[in-house]
Amino acid sequence: MDNPPVKPIFDNIDYLENPFHHHDFSLPVYFRQYGFLTDYEFAWKFIYSYNGSSATYNVYRREVERLIQWSWMISGKSVLELKREDIEDYVNFCISPPDDWIGIKNVARFKNKNGTREINPDWRPFVASISKVEAGKGKKPKTSDFTMSQASIRSIFSVLSSFYNFLIQENISEVNPVLLIRQKSKFLVKKQQKAPVRRISNLQWDYVVETVEKMADEEPETHERTLFILKCLLGMYLRISELVADERSIPVMGDFRRDNDKNWWFHVIGKGNKSRSVTVSDEMLDALKRYRGYLDLSPLPLAGERTPLVTKLLGKGPVTSTRQIRTLLQLCYDKTYQKMMEDGLSDDAEELRVATVHWLRHTAISEDVKIRPREHVRDDAGHGSMETTDRYIESDARERHATGRKKKLSEL
């Protein structure tokens, strides 16, 4: 007999009611056969506690939902019954899930139909993906392409440990089985070296900026905004999420502020809902003036100005989708790739094909940490510690190799 298809449990945060206002809980119809109502109630309460950030909520929902699905459908147990060895079995399951648990594209768990939320039959707990280069060559992902990264495995341990600690605090469980796993090393690979910071080269950077400036000159109605977005990412180390409106904040022009010394700062709500002020350079200020001139605004923002920082091209209001900006910047990469190929820089062009938009932030930080005090870069970038900033300080690979070429194996 075939296993029943795996189905989602919890909807997006915008559609999820506050469980702390509920007194009577009932399982979704398609999960009532399992009867583990307490699991459902406290999983709901746990993930809802992270409603302040949709990104954080999505991570915690994913990990807890997967555990419940496996525990109920595969193990046949309540999550309250799971032991250390069960969690180990679960991690192994996540590393190599069955094909019918793997999707080949990211889709929403639920979708609107006739005014109600219905399950999306294409949704799966795990998703196979391929590289940008492979996708560019027309390859389509298959379930056999699924691999679980080390970061994803760490996420399992981190989130589920927090989940069981929550259950203990609520007097629902007496033990955290995740903490009992002493040999996580068999799942997690310890690297001798830290992963290198992924960035584009200075040559690629110059080509990207030149390409986008040309796009803005030729199609200002579309790409003046593109150029401003690029300059924000490069000039202020911003993350894409810090450019769009979400439940945390709506970035506006008034977030550019001048202090008593007439220095300009950009105030942003960043990762972890932490606020920070970012130094605005003279060139960034020029980029702001250019964009505002195109929008027929005053050269510099007024105090308290509520004009969205990045406006929609069609309609009014701020951009709310990071995907839209990623797609826009990918177009810039694609056009830059074409230009570099035309100029005979095929090797550099091919390297650019694997780059992501987030590499722009890494690139800007890597360059600035060479010439600015580390603590200034740390604060502008919003790093939680100097250790994070120090990852961007690297010896030049060519110099390193040059000093090692003359090492002798004899006559020591």
TrEMBL record:
It is found in: Cytoplasm. The keyword DNA-binding applies. Keywords: DNA integration, DNA recombination, DNA-binding. InterPro entries: DNA_brk_join_enz, Integrase-like_cat_sf, Integrase_catalytic, Integrase_recombinase_N, Tyrosine_recombinase_XerCD. Residues 403-412 have a biased composition (Basic residues). The keyword DNA-binding applies. This is Site-specific integrase. It comes from Fluctibacter corallii.
